[in-house]
Amino acid sequence: MKYIYQDSTELPVQRDFIEDLKVFIDITARVIPLENSIIELKCKHKEELHKLESRIMGMNLFEEKLGILVNKLANDIGTEDLTSCIDAVLATCSENLGRKREILDIEARKIENGASQEYQKTESKVLEVLTPFLISGIYGAEKRFELSSSTNEVSGIMEGSISGLQYYYKLWFTEEPLTVNRLIGNFNLPGWTKTGILRKEEKIKMQDLSEFLVTSLEYDSEKNIRLVFENKKSNRKFRIEGGGLNYFVYDDNREITADKELGDHIDMMSLAQIPEKVQDYLRANIRNYALSKILLDEEDAISTNQVFDCLKVVAEQYGVIVHECLAKGHNKEEITIKTEEADGTRTEKYISKSEIYTQLSEIGSEGIEIAEILGVNSRSQIKESKYLIV
Question: Which domain of life is it from (predicted)?
Fold first, then answer.
């Protein structure tokens, strides 16, 4: 299936943009109230802690002034007989206020501990809501994958980044050993071997490495790879690094591609196909995933309440396509795309600007701001933006 504008030119991302836009609006409507509830809780707890702190400061000030006042009074009278009385008064005051301060300190710690648990509970909900969207819903994000494998499991992480926004996923794959064959198919590399019965001579022999176990894999949206695999005894290890048509192959720490004779036996076109095969494996075998962290300009966006600003980054990317849909569409009040089947059958999908604006405005001022960034009200202007297509 192909996705096109109304003027039959292809969308820069071959995805159902109307559906993605609806999901983005729904996610925004669910996340903003959650973040606002955290902000409200923080304000409430801050106010409660401020009141307790003010009471403690009042006690401290009273104790300090009482000491000054009592000592001044004793000095004015000028007799040593008052010393024991002064000490008793100040000691009683200190003991009494000390107990009060301890009670208030315990109350403050309860508020802080309880607040932390409340924040974490709501922050977990924010991550849960965003998990199905961010992994594939952000257009133009640069992505990087890291996988590790053992005989029992394959797991990894995915990092996405765009315009100061970074997000991290934990990934789990189908529960079976990840062999070279499973990842990229049959695979051979040249190596030196000694042959002959009476006279041993070194000759080049192609080694079948298909059943070697992949121990680690790195892959990014620029289709660069770093692939490490070893035999079952873990006494032979190979590494492949590179991208495009430029690859380096290592047998342990010895570079095979630097050996002219061995290098001539390496099928570089076969190596160049590895990134596509890795991409196919990732698409087909991610069993489960969970969003673990979101950063904005290297700050934790959840704990610093910057999720709304993260959504604005996404809205800017979507706004560019909204602008193109309106510019290339017949109805300037509707965002329209077409789907084209392999047999040429075309179907229109659309959503009106007013429908989007109504849904977003119900969220409040944050929703209206998102609507303006998307360009779905008359006052909006979409600024020019460039993005990569993954």
Answer: Archaea
Please give the helix or strand (H or E) that residue 74 lies within, else none. helix 17-77
Please count the CA atoms within 13 angstroms of the CA of 215 that sit on its side-chain side: 14
Banded model confidence at residue 197, pLDDT cuts 50, 70, 90 = low
Q: What tokens does 238 get?
A: 């190979």
* Distance (Å, whole) CA 163 – CA 118: 30
How far apart CA 205 and CA 221 sit, in angstroms, is 34
Q: Say yes or no to pLDDT of 384 above 60.
A: no
Please give the residue range of the domain that contains residue 14. Answer: 2-34+305-374
Q: Which of 107, 137, 167 is the last residue of a domain?
A: 137
- Residues 73 and 234: their CA atoms lie apart, in Å, by 86
pLDDT tens figures, 39-84:
998 888 888 888 988 998 999 999 899 888 888 888 888 767 788 8
Alpha helices in 286-380 (DSSP H): 307-328, 353-361, 365-374
Question: Rounded to a whole number, what is the distance in angstroms from the first to the last CA of the chain?
Answer: 17
Phi, psi of 99 (to 5 degrees): -65, -40
Range with the lowest mean pLDDT among 44-58, 104-118, 175-189? 104-118
CA dist., res. 352 & res. 17, Å (int):
13
Query: Who wins on pLDDT, 51 or 384?
Result: 51
Reported pTM: 0.80
C-alpha span between 293 and 288 (Å, rounded): 16
**Are the CB atoms for 346 and 340 separated by under 8 Å?**
yes
Find the helix or strand (DSSP H, E) in which 30 lies.
helix 17-77
Tally of structural domains, the chain? 3
